[in-house]
Amino acid sequence: MKKVISALTAAAMCASMSASVMTAFAVYTANDIEFYLKIAEAPGGTISADGTKVTFPDAATAKASEIVVQQYIKVADISNPSVQLVNTCYQVDDALNFAALPDFTATGESKEYTVGGQTFTTDQYVNCFGYLGGIGKKYVNGCGAATYQTNDAFTFDYDGPKILVGNWGPDFRQDPTTAKFFGDTSDELPFSTFSVTVADDAADGTYEIGFGEGFMHPSEAVGRSGYNMINVDGTVDGKVEITNTKGVEVVIGDGETPETTEAPKPTEAPETTEAPKPTETPKPTEAPDPTDPVQEFDGMTFYVEDTVYDPKTNTNGYAEVNI
User: Fold this and answer.
1) Can you give the pLDDT at residue 137?
2) What are phi and psi of 152, to 5 degrees?
3) Quick one: which of 182, 221, 224 has its CA closest to 78?
4) Which letter, b or e, does each residue of 101-111 get, where b requires 16 or more Cβ atoms within 10 Å of its Cβ?
5) What's the pLDDT tens digit per position in 161-191?
6) 173 vs 99: CA distance, rounded Å
7) DSSP state of 74
8) Is residue 311 very low, low, confident or very high in pLDDT (cuts 50, 70, 90)?
């Protein structure tokens, strides 16, 4: 994180110094500048005509793809702005991950471009401010010093959404030390390019790639870091915070994230009222154990050999034994 802060500070210092010696330019406000994204590539997906949405048929196809996204800067009047710093904060939903970060160095592949009526070939990254070693001094530092990192690289505790922050400024070792828009319009060419992948656990749904609000660095008492802004000559303090931003959408499947419905709780059986216990019928008087002697006579013992149950009296009677 120290690298980002130091680059931002250095750029601001250089911007301040150059502003003191250059002629004044038209004042820009937040409403004059727009940051917006477009999807440039998405293998396996269908990109809308305006580049604001890519649709994948299913999650497996989306996870196998790498979505290339480009940022554009739109201003109405490009006649004389002198840009000294561009600060950006990209943000993605949890189902997405940042892959390739913005890289303003040589691409390694020569391409022919026609911009603003001029045709040229270069292997440098070409953006809306030109390219390194461009045509004439006006665009020579179109791709200057840049520092970008995701929140995973922060060296302090961070509890927030997935973001990619960074800043870009002209190469201050060259002259001029500020950049101008390269094409006939400010968004004839993109400003930066980065890529996003779909997380392994992503389900069908609609997810956003857009701009974040920055973050609070623990060493700063007030203010934010990494927010979207542009430093243009002629503005108050040189800085314009960009509030007019537009992101893009990634649609997987039908675009509807299935809701997890709780299983219905089983209907509790109504409490059963205990039936009144039947009145117990008194047990009949048990017949005596036949082994118990009932009478002794003349040294002989007589036993009851049978009993008779009388239902009228609910009792057992004894059979008469004739002695």
Assistant:
1) 45
2) -65, -20
3) 182
4) bbebeeeeeee
5) 999 999 888 765 555 567 788 888 999 999 9
6) 30
7) E
8) low
Query: φ and ψ at 182, to 5 degrees?
Result: -85, -40
Res 175: pLDDT: 53
In this structure, the number of other CB atoms found within 10 A of the CB of residue 204 comes to 16
Vertex 12: Cα angle to 209 and 82 (nearest 5): 80
Measured CA angle at 315 (ends 310, 320), to 5 deg = 70
Length of the chain: 323
The two three-digit tokens of residue 76, written as one number: 């109405």
Cβ atoms of residues 215 and 87 within 8 Å: no
Pairing relationship of beta strands 53-56 and 96-98 according to DSSP bridges: unpaired
Token pair, residue 282, equals: 């008194």
Q: Are 145 and 6 within 8 A, CB to CB?
A: no
Give the pLDDT confidence score for residue 19 in this predicted structure: 39
pTM (predicted TM-score): 0.70
Q: Tell me the pLDDT tens digit for each residue of 236-257.
A: 566 889 999 999 999 999 877 6
Strands 205-211 and 83-92 turn out to be: antiparallel
Q: Which two tokens stand for residue 85?
A: 């710093």
Our CA dihedral for 41, 42, 45, 47, rounded to 10 degrees, sits at -30
Distance CA 219, CA 159 (A): 16
How far is the C-alpha of 43 from the C-alpha of 197, rounded, in Å? 11
Tell me which residue has tokens 């802004």. Answer: 229
DSSP 3-state of 292:
coil
